[in-house]
Amino acid sequence: MNISTLLDLLQPLILKVNCDNNLEISHISSDSREVREGTLFICREGYSFDSHAIIDKVYQQGATAFIVEKDVSKEFPHIQVVDSRIAEAVLAGEFYGKPYEKLITFGVTGTNGKTTCVHLFHHVMHMFGNRGSISGTVMNDIMGDKFYHQNTTPSAIEILRNMAKTLNDGGEYYGMEVSSHALDQYRVESIRYDIVGLTNITRDHLDFHITFENYKRAKLHIIDLLKPNGIAVINYDYFSDVRNGNLRIITFGTNSKAHYVIKDVNTNWSGTNFILETPYGAKRVYTQLIGGYNAYNVTLVIAGLVEIGYDIDEVIEAVKTFRGVDGRFEVIPEAKKLGIEVVIDFAHTPDALEKVIISLRKLSKGRIIVVFGAGGQSDKGKRPMMGEIVSKYADITIVTTDDPRGEDPREIISDIEKGLIPNSLHLSIIDRKEAIDTAITLANKGDVVLIAGRGHEPYQVFDDHRKIHFKDRDVAMDIILHKINKGEKSFR
Ligand SMILES: CC(=O)N[C@H]1[C@@H](OP(=O)(O)OP(=O)(O)OC[C@H]2O[C@@H](n3ccc(=O)[nH]c3=O)[C@H](O)[C@@H]2O)O[C@H](CO)[C@@H](O)[C@@H]1O[C@H](C)C(=O)N[C@@H](C)C(=O)N[C@H](CCC(=O)O)C(=O)O
Ligand SMILES: Nc1ncnc2c1ncn2[C@@H]1O[C@H](COP(=O)(O)OP(=O)(O)OP(=O)(O)O)[C@@H](O)[C@H]1O
Question: Can you give the pTM of this predicted structure?
């Protein structure tokens, strides 16, 4: 591609041009680790690294030209812009030929439920015989190529590249989780969606957004990214006041004013069922997902697909066969041999913890023992709130280590302890394995152990370089099997 095409597009952002208009660009990147001959490299001052500092090294790697935000030497062909992140979004859209225009695109944001919605969307589309891709926290599945990405929402270039691959390989749809960070940093700015979903909004990520208003504004920005005929599917119980010109907004929730009204939710150990009042009549919905809150996630996906033209009864039928996502209300069947239930769940916000424990309360007459911690280097303010919620709703609270990410685990635990309700039954055990073992040992017949906060995650991250393999399900399973082999049963 000739750089002049890209220059035209960037015009409103350009401060200075210091390059030949006839340069040919065969690749674009903002990451030096993937630069090759013919690359247009986008420099930016990031949160942890300033890639303007490595411009000479990247030039030697073969970069043809640079997009920069700062003054750099004339020896490097460059275009200086006011904002490299916006430039990256614009360039990525153009360079990869706007593949989103030919795909059914589904973007979900919200504090909790994004992964569940995107995986359910993938499942239903597959059941309808469509091929496509998804990206998000647990995994990226780009036309069958499955891999983990450190970000819930990758960079603009990666997303557009994956969308282009999806289209080239004959895919029809692309579903993705859209984090508030990504919305704020223009990672999805040049994408347009057929369906956007807003699951809910409660406290999280205020280390980054600082205020809840900023966080909410970032999330709501997804509505601006709809295609002209696109549909926003919004949880009315959290966003009752969203208006946006002529855009189609479809609401869902328990409030009778919503377009899709959730009623009579019943959850048990084999799934959840509820009545959904829709513009097409009342329907009974059954899902294998346990936890009443999943009625919201399921409804978001049903409403989105129905509103773009899929048959409601067929969508509801396809939902039935979805088995859920790794580490989300995952029951360990072997625990039953000890007379107890053990559940792994990714709840790591105050709201998610409350919802999961309340769901468990409906499922069990026994005591609920919760093991959890909080991640380091992220929203410290939610820690005491998590402590308060767990000690309010659980019978025994065991505070432990999550991913400290360089923070002292003792300090994180102490932040959580500040919120614990006085006189509630609680323990703090720094070693996560020991905490899980203690919870399972304390459980009597009929009790439930909830191991929360890390879900599918395979590693505990102690600092930038020290990761240890730690998957809650595997650790809990080992402990349970060990107890079964020793002939232990929870009859106490
Ligand atoms: C704070 C934050 O949001 N950081 C994200 C952001 O980084 P950044 O733009 O500040 O980039 P940086 O790491 O400082 O590097 C600056 C530039 O130098 C480049 N670089 C860097 C090093 C190098 O050797 N060579 C090189 O070229 C980088 O590619 C980048 O272009 O943009 C990058 C590309 O999209 C992300 O990978 C990076 O995620 C970091 C790893 C991160 O931890 N992000 C978290 C906070 C985050 O974004 N999380 C949300 C989900 C949250 C949730 O829902 O739980 C997410 O969407 O993942
Ligand atoms: N609709 C919901 N309302 C409240 N809590 C929910 C909802 N859906 C899921 N959860 C809780 O949030 C946890 C994470 O679910 P999921 O992975 O689907 O959300 P997410 O938004 O993708 O999270 P993250 O962005 O942190 O990856 C679940 O394990 C459950 O505890």
Answer: 0.95
